[in-house]
Design goal:
- The protein contains ten helices and 14 strands.
- By secondary structure, the chain is an alpha/beta fold.
- The protein has two domains: 12-133, Rossmann fold (3-Layer(aba) Sandwich), CATH 3.40.50; 141-294, Dihydrodipicolinate Reductase, domain 2 (2-Layer Sandwich), CATH 3.30.360.10.
- The chain has an eight-stranded mixed beta sheet. It has a six-stranded parallel beta sheet with strand order 3-2-1-4-5-6, sandwiched between helices.
- Strand 8 and strand 9 form a beta hairpin.
- Helix 1 (20-35) crosses helix 8 (295-307), helix 4 packs antiparallel against helix 9 and helix 7 packs across helix 9.
- The protein is globular.
- 42% of the residues are buried.
- Bound molecules: nicotinamide-adenine-dinucleotide (NAD).
- This is Gfo/Idh/MocA family oxidoreductase.
Length: 357
């Protein structure tokens, strides 16, 4: 892919938030694409209130958004990766649009609430800006294989889906400024994947979170989450999804199990960028396929292609799908809250007379 267009300055990545997502994921993927010759971005601009002494040689720090925009050849030549905590994005987007920025890649979850996500998308739309929400699993080669198998009828009609994303996350849970609930960590990826595979309309049947237990602390809502969904309207055959994320698990796992009327697919996604391979098996068949898979890097490549006008919207980045996911995450949060409140309500003492009724 060529980033340079004749007569136009190249696109410049601007990482707004240089923590785990900005530094370890987005910048890492941009470097991989440069090494592959797919994207020639050179030095990236970094905007973060915290200036790091150990900034890599291929990153240039800008103290604020205005300084980042001023460092670009033209404001609309920047691709702004909004990789700071979700609650900071609406304000930043407003500032950037006013300064002439028009190209964005936005981390998950889009915003702290569905209401704010709608505001964010409407703001971008009204300015004629292009915004790509992060849709990691739809860009996965494993997912695309699963989609192909479903279309080919390999397991019949889908009936249920189970997506598990587990990992130990004790240290980050103790000191996490970016997340307040396990519904914001792996779950946005899981809900989006469920909607991508099994579609909308979709309604919530269960939502729960639990605390992260440490030897001397109990961190509320960061130990894990569970969501139940039903996909399909009244005239459709329903598909149920169960999504579980255990952030106290001793092992890392990203597994999808899709059960159809005539069989079952089990897929394992890569558990980290250090080993970019997934696995796929039809239950009962001997062979297990190993699939090269680097979904985040593919998504970023496709997003740049789209921003250059050289490719379609990457899979699963339709804003409507993301808003549907945000609505379900909000509903799950409300359900988890109601469940927590119910569990905290003391059960009234029942008298002997009442017991004998
Ligand atoms: N796609 C993924 O797999 C993935 C993985 C990790 C995190 N994330 C998402 O990325 C977001 C950030 O998470 P993180 O783990 O990187 O958090 P983090 O705490 O590691 O990093 C956040 C960074 O943003 C900076 N920041 C805060 N406010 C800012 C502002 N207004 N402008 C610029 N920078 C600002 C902080 O100084 C910090 O360096 C979250 O929404 C998270 O869910 C996604």
């Amino acid at each position: 892919m060529k980033v340079r267009h004749p007569g136009r300055p190249p696109l410049v990545p601007v990482l707004v938030g240089y923590g785990r997502a900005g530094r370890d994921l987005h910048h890492h993927s941009l470097r991989t694409l440069a090494e592959e010759g797919a994207l020639a971005t050179g030095q990236v601009l970094v905007v973060d209130p915290v200036r790091r002494d150990d900034l890599p040689h291929d990153a240039r720090w800008a103290p604020d958004l205005a300084a980042a925009v001023a460092a670009l050849p033209e404001p609309d030549r920047g691709v702004f990766h909004l990789t700071m905590p979700a609650g900071q994005r609406l304000h930043a987007l407003r500032q950037l649009l006013a300064a002439g920025a028009r190209r964005f890649i936005v981390e998950k979850p889009l915003a702290p609430s569905a209401h704010e996500a709608r505001q964010l998308l409407a703001l971008a739309d009204s300015a004629g800006a292009q915004l790509i929400p992060m849709s990691v699993w739809p860009s996965s080669a494993v997912t695309q294989e699963v989609v192909g198998m479903l279309r080919a009828g390999r397991v019949g009609r889908p009936r249920s889906l189970r997506i598990e994303q587990h990992k130990p996350r004790f240290r980050r849970g103790l000191d996490d400024a970016a997340h307040s609930s396990a519904l914001q960590i792996e779950m946005p990826h899981q809900v989006l994947l469920a909607l991508y595979l099994c579609g909308t309309p979709c309604r919530l049947t269960a939502g729960d979170v639990w605390p992260l237990p440490l030897p001397d602390a109990l961190v509320p809502a960061l130990g894990g989450a569970r969501i139940g969904l039903v996909h399909g309207g009244p005239e459709d055959a329903e598909v149920t999804s169960t999504l579980v994320s255990d952030l106290t698990s001793p092992v890392r796992m990203r597994r999808l199990r899709l059960t159809g009327t005539e069989g079952e697919i089990v897929a394992h996604y890569p558990t980290g960028g250090d080993d970019p391979y997934g696995q796929l098996q039809v239950v009962g068949e001997e062979s297990r396929r190993i699939i090269p898979d680097a979904p985040l890097t593919r998504l970023i490549e496709d997003a740049y292609r789209f921003h250059l006008g050289e490719g379609p919207r990457p899979p699963g980045t339709d804003p409507a799908l993301h808003l549907a996911a945000m609505d379900l995450l909000d509903a799950a949060k409300a359900a988890a809250h109601a469940r927590g409140a119910a569990m905290e309500t003391p059960v009234p003492h029942r008298s002997r007379e009442a017991e004998s009724c």
